[in-house]
Amino acid sequence: MAGEIEGCGFDGFRACVWEVTARKIGNVHRFADFPNLTYLDFVISAESIRGWINIAHECWLGYGKTRLGYTIERAIYWMHREVGTNTHLGIILLLMPLAAVLTRPRSASRNTRHDLTHVLSLLTIEDARLVYSAIRNLNPGGLGDAPEQDVRAEPTVTLLEAMKLAADRDMVARQYANGFADVFDFGVPAFVDAFAKFGCVEAAIIDSQLRWLATYPDSLIARKNGPAVAEDVRRRAAEVLALGGIATAEGRAAGVALDKHLRSDGNKLNPGTTADLITACLFVALRENKVTPNPPFRWNVPDWL
Known about the structure:
Strand content: under 5%
CATH architecture of one domain: Orthogonal Bundle
Helix content: 55-70%
Number of strands: 0
Structural class: mainly alpha
Number of helices: 14
Shape: globular
Distance between the termini: 42 Å
Order of helices and strands: HHHHHHHHHHHHHH
CATH class of one domain: Mainly Alpha
CATH topology of one domain: Triphosphoribosyl-dephospho-CoA protein
Radius of gyration: 18 Å
Largest sheet: none
Low-confidence stretches: none
């Protein structure tokens, strides 16, 4: 069982590295840094949270009595300690509950989504306090003000209840509120279908990013620029898909143009929440054996980024 726990951390690390290495539009990747945020920052951060993913796995297996909120708080602390910036806040919030329940190989009697709902229901005000404190110390960009249970104040509700209050404006919080339905019902099938179509992890990640962006306005874009701008990006991504996405020359040209648009004006249109959600989907796909890792980044999309 010790190897199984370590395998959970490795799958979390691999999901993070796959996500940031793939040449997604508007995001940091191996050929595109931001002035204050680099590809190496993301790789180092992925390693820094790996052990805490293992500990979150223990929360459900019964090997320890560590609070899930504590694993989130510690992972955020170590991420910030190692790179001094926010690379993985959304990823940490998504991966820790998933790590608590995604065992492999999974017993036929286990129901992952039922177990996940149960784990989320056990979150307490203390979990919320730990997470709020970590987020305040991190002070991520585009935090804004919340009408209820603002992260700058001490929480008076459980972490799950706080996430439900934010679910209409934040896609990470929405996963807590709906039992990660968007991850399991939309994101994982989109990635698995694209992997079957293209036969390569990177291509599947790029394709699924376009599908996420065309379906859900990105929360980070909305927080930094307003909902109308986020909706405009969603419309533009839908147009890229309508032209065939990465499967056609027209779609690729439109994707390259959208990438340039997202990177203009100091990368203010970075679709960071979508990247976090893709990482969660990759983690699920790995833990549930929905993808067999091939050499993932040796496939070059012609006329791409």
